[in-house]
Amino acid sequence: MQTLLLNADDVDENARMDRVIDAVRGAFTAYERGNAKMPAKSYIDLPEYNGDFRSMPAYLDVRTEDTAEDDGWDAAGIKWVNVHTDNPADHDLPTVMGTMIYSDPETAFPLAILDGTTLTMKRTGAAAAVATDELAVPDATSLGIVGAGVQSYTQLEAIAAVRDIEEVVVSDLDEERVADFIDAFDDRFDVRAGSVSEAGHCDVLSTVTPVEEPIVGPGDVGDHTHVNAMGADAAGKHELADGLLSDATIVIDDHEQCTHSGEINVPYAAGNLTDDDIYGEIGEIVVGNRPGRAGAGSGSDAAAGGTRNAGVDGVTVFDSTGLAIQDVAAARVVYEQADADGNGYPFDLLGLAE
Question: Which BP terms in the Gene Ontology apply to this protein (predicted)?
Fold first, then answer.
């Protein structure tokens, strides 16, 4: 038995976005139903290198009594990821790099070692797509993006899989990055540069910046805009003004992570937001235990006329910190596809070959 080594190109090729979105939706479902094990993300701070390491282990089981045997699955793995802000200038390396180990839950055999950076981009886009599907107006056709870095690409790729996006407005202080983004997508969408407010008045807005001073205020979004706040991943980061957050319906991915390092961490620590201001977790909406946007949602509970059809209205915000269960779910998609197609490099990691 061999371990499959999958580099960035392999992950990109085999992470079919429609399947990753379904897998991430399944991860949120398993987590909400108590069928996942996910210890808190652990940090190793290295101020001497202006960086840190983070470890993210998880196990999830999407099998239920109603799941057909061929459709049920469980999965386990761990992602080891860093944030070293001096890397690009000092070492010609990316700020963020990740490595994913995907294992067989029954035997613990390492089925694959994957590039975790590309995997993170894919599952982050997929998480925004799941939230958009549940919280954005059903007829959304415009998407605003604040921040034209690497994460912006999978935001558009994923959200366009759940809404018929036609118009895209991208805002970034770096004109070259904006031009690169437009070049990448102008053959598929009506995409243009714009201000933060122009991006924010789209039907859906994704913010993917590392700022610590809010750049999107209450007047920068439309009356029914759904906002995917994707940039905050550490204490002190804060993209959306407190006034916007206090007026919006806030949905989080995980209470511990969001209050520690998500979009709400700064106003929560200051007492400007409390648990009473948090509408619920995305998993609750996915399984139909709490209403999403009226008429939105493509999950089975919505199709069956679940409670989400009562619906929230106005501005909604999804605070996404990124969960290890998402990485494991996405890794399974990549491994299964690569294994079936003969992609990647199989090798005898444990020296068990005869």
Answer: alanine metabolic process
